[in-house]
Design a protein that fits this description.
about 30% helix; about 230 residues; five-stranded antiparallel beta sheet; five-stranded parallel beta sheet; elongated; alpha/beta
Length: about 230
């Protein structure tokens, strides 16, 4: 589910934006929720520090001051992956919005059509991003093509790439559903990225990758694994 946060000092605008967004959630069957709304920047920062936030609609001119941009800079220190959409009645601040890597800006008054276009474009971007990247934590994403194999170590999963290792707490059963077909279970403790395999030593049940790293094939998985990689 997408967690969306709204911040604006105009209560009437907040109510209208929330209403328009929920209509779009229903219209397009989006798995999204407005998890927090506020007119207070300190409460906003505290919420972002302690909760997952995917999309933030932020007013540039809170309390009639150009503080939205400075708040956005603080937000980027906390959450670099959050997708920021500025709302503003002052077009002159728009170019500055991109200094904090804003996804888009919406000039008030915001029309339903413009909001719909921006939201759907962001959803499409996220879908494409999620198909290419694996989320390790709130600030770390790795390109799935860089992964050689995934190793289970107790409650942790360790993603082995050409040059690094990345740890996260998850299970094979959950992560497998979000991986493309070329990630194949080869052992009770390993999932291999077939695209990065250099060669397989069937006699020793060892899989080698193009950086000379290796993982292993378990007896239970060997027949199905060998069929899937066409060896």
């Amino acid at each position: 589910m997408l967690n969306i946060v709204l911040c604006d000092d105009n209560l009437s605008f907040l109510n209208g934006l929330e209403d328009m967004l929920y209509k779009l959630f229903i219209k397009h069957n989006l798995d999204a929720n407005i998890s927090f709304r506020t007119d207070c920047t300190s409460k906003l920062l505290k919420h972002i520090e302690n909760n997952p936030v995917d999309i933030l609609f932020l007013d540039i001119t809170l309390k009639n001051k150009n503080v939205g941009l400075s708040i956005a800079e603080e937000i980027r220190k906390i959450n670099k992956s959050l997708h920021l959409i500025f709302t503003t009645a002052h077009f002159e601040f728009v170019m500055e919005a991109y200094k904090v890597n804003a996804f888009d800006y919406l000039v008030k008054p915001i029309s339903q059509d413009k909001l719909e276009e921006t939201l759907l474009r962001l959803i499409d971007y996220l879908d494409n991003f999620n198909n290419r990247f694996i989320k390790i934590n709130s600030t770390t994403f790795i390109n799935q093509d860089d992964v050689h194999y995934i190793r289970k170590d107790g409650m942790k999963l360790i993603f082995h790439t050409k040059d690094n290792e990345f740890e996260t707490y998850n299970s094979f059963s959950k992560i497998k559903n979000n991986l493309p077909r070329h990630f194949v279970r080869c052992h009770k403790s390993f999932i291999a990225n077939v695209s990065n395999i250099s060669h397989v030593e069937a006699g020793t049940n060892t899989i080698f990758f193009n950086n000379s790293s290796k993982c292993y094939i378990g007896p239970r998985y060997k027949e199905e694994f060998m069929e899937k990689i066409n060896i």
